Amino acid sequence: QVQLVESGGGLVQAGGSLRLSCAASGRTFSNSAAGWFRQAPGKEREFVAAASRSGAITYYADSVRGRFTITRDNAKNTVDLQMNSLKPEDTAVYYCAGDQWTTAQAMRTLSHHEYWGQGTQVTVSS
Which SS3 state, helix, strand or coil, does residue 89 take? Predict the structure, then answer.
C-alpha cells in the first residue's frame, strides 16, 4: 500500500509562487502515474496536472498550463507541483493522487485513483 502526504501549501499573494510536494511511502511510487487535483470552495474537484511514471510526460489543465510544473523524483518517491504566477482562482485544497493501473493521460479525466493524499490548502490573496 502507498501512502501520500502533501506539504508546501500556504498563503501567498497573487503573482507569487508556491511549491507543493507529495511524498509517497510504503512502496515504490515510480510504479504509479501521479497527478495533482484541487477543490475550490463550492466547486467540484478538478484535474490540475499529471506525470507519467518517469516524469518525462506531463499533462496540465488549461487553467494552469504555462504557470504550473509537475516533476517527479523517483529516487525520493516524491512528486512536486511548482506553482508560479498564482492567481486568486488557484485557491483550493490541493490533493496528490497516484495509480498503478492508469496513465498520466487518463488521470486528466478519471476521478477514481488508487492513492490519495490528505490535501494541502493553497490560498492566493489579491
Answer: helix
As given in the structure block, the three cell numbers for residue 67 are 504557470
Residues 6+ apart with CB under 8 A from 88: 14, 124, 125, 126
Whose CA is closest to 20, among 64, 111, 74, 84?
Answer: 84
Q: Which DSSP symbol is given to 63?
A: T
Separation CA 7–CA 51 (nearest Å): 18
The backbone torsions φ and ψ at residue 108, rounded to the nearest 5 degrees and listed phi first, read: -65, -30
Helix (H) or strand (E) holding 51: strand 46-51
Q: Which helix (H) or strand (E) holds 121?
A: strand 120-125
Return the C-alpha torsion angle 112, 113, 117, 120, nearest 10. -50
Per-residue pLDDT of the chain (126 residues; tens, 9 = 90+): 889 999 999 999 999 999 999 999 988 889 999 999 999 999 999 999 999 999 999 999 999 999 999 999 999 999 999 999 999 999 999 999 999 999 999 999 988 889 999 999 999 999
